[in-house]
Amino acid sequence: MADPFHLAWFTPFKTPAWKSPWASGTATEWLNGDYYIDMARALERAGFDFMMFEDSTLVSDTYGGTQENDLKHGLHSPKGDPVPLLPVLAQHTKHMGFIATMSTSFYPPFIVARTMATMDHLTRGRVGWNVVTSSENLAAQNYGIEKLLEHDERYVMAEEFITVVKGLWDSWEPGAVIADRETGVLVDHTKVHPLHHKGKYFDVRGPLNLPAGPQGHPVICQAGGSPAGRNFASKHANVLLCQPSGLDEMREYRDDIRARAAAHGRNPDDIKVMYIIQPVLGETAQEAKELAARRDELTQDQIETQLGIMSITTEVDFKQFDLDSPLPDDIHTNGHASSLKGFVKAAAGKTLREALLGRTNPAVPLVGTPDSVAEQMEEVAEAIGGDGFLVRGEPVRTHSRRYVDEIASGLAPALRRRGLIRSAYDKPTFKANLSAF
């Protein structure tokens, strides 16, 4: 039997499943947060550890040189800022954690440190920060930056950034707030320390103007796939999300991260490597197979969606390539390098059209009844020694209340019956619950 593992959900704060027959409400109703409140409540009842919100801040015209494809399919826009959403979700739940994305390329470190500390207090210790370096020049241009730094240098900058943020969280010693009525002193000034950081990328005086929250350092999440990204993640992250293909790659990724963590002087068990999955559930195995086959049909919409997303994240215009020819060998990017590398590797010896077939299956295909998929997940966890899984609804068609309920009311109970996921939240904070096993 596999050890218990963590279960989470990976999502943007964007229009859910608007093309699906199971779409609910209007195309803009999600903006008030109610859909995600309902989702958070359902996932907490199911025993999920956290919801992780990815983010981007652009309307892309990379695919075909126009914004049409991005806006037509709702790929990266419209999308809301997940940071203000987190305290709202926490108000409607009691235990589960919530992670928001903020970019080291666009935010000043002081704002990230202050925002995260504030949210940690507001949620009583249930928030995390997904650290990204960003990969799109189009997004950079919304912040007055013409072009992003080179890929690996962005991680050098992120290293200084996170060092500053952690220093600001540590700038107030425990017990600095004394509220002594007799002496009239609210804060002991000897326990609050300026940072005086002067580095290559940032000059930050400090201190932070409020104490750190209940977690001290909120949960740090990262998705490093390149060597520079893996090194950064293994040094700083509590949670690492990834999407390698197949058991061998999943095992290699986790082993590499744990070895790098040990080299940084960390306990490898302090990093939870979470694999992105998209289970397909049916009342029978045959029904699930038929649903999976329909999901993987390569319609024109699917082609435009997949190539559009690849174009946005890599800033390579995939519309320029012939669908019925192999990809050229000399594709390069300063964008999301690991995504491009993984796709080019998967496309070797295939036409572009063939490479797209079945590409919606992440990490390992999980297709069947709730009980059989739970059994498959147990086998995967046992084979790789993994820490957990991130469920991701397919953004355009299956990110719906129906799919959330299939997972929360079908798969999660099947996993719990096997003792594979939590049945209670025994610790007071997100980080403590994450470290419980």
Write the layout of secondary structure elements.
Elements: E1 6-12, H1 34-46, E2 50-54, H2 68-73, H3 85-91, E3 97-103, H4 109-122, E4 127-132, H5 137-140, H6 151-169, E5 177-180, E6 185-187, E7 197-198, E8 203-204, E9 219-222, H7 227-236, E10 239-242, H8 246-263, E11 272-277, E12 280-281, H9 285-295, H10 300-314, H11 337-346, H12 352-356, E13 367-368, H13 370-384, E14 388-391, H14 401-417, H15 430-434
Parallel strand pairs: 1-2, 1-14, 2-3, 3-4, 4-9, 9-10, 10-11, 11-14, 12-13
Antiparallel strand pairs: 5-6, 7-8
Feature tags:
alpha/beta, eight-stranded parallel β-barrel, two-stranded antiparallel ribbon, 39% helix, globular
Radius of gyration: 22 Å
Q: Write the H/E string, N to C.
A: EHEHHEHEHHEEEEEHEHEEHHHHEHEHH
Mean pLDDT: 93
Helicity level: 25-40%
Q: Counting H and I runs of at least 4 residues, what is the number of helices? A: 15
Number of strands: 14
Briefly note the structural class of the backbone.
alpha/beta
Q: Give the strand order of the largest sheet, numbering strands 1, 2, ... along the chain.
A: 1-2-3-4-9-10-11-14
Point out poorly predicted stretches.
Answer: none
Largest sheet: 8 strands, parallel, barrel
Strand fraction: 5-15%
- Measured between the Cα atoms of the first and last residue, the distance is 15 Å
Choose one word for the global shape. Answer: globular
How is this structure best described in words?
By secondary structure, this protein is α/β, with parallel strands linked by helices. The mean pLDDT is 93. The protein is globular and about 75 Å long. It contains 15 helices and 14 strands. Helix content is 39%, strand content 13%. An 8-stranded parallel β-barrel has the order 1-2-3-4-9-10-11-14, surrounded by 5 helices. A two-stranded antiparallel sheet has the order 5-6.
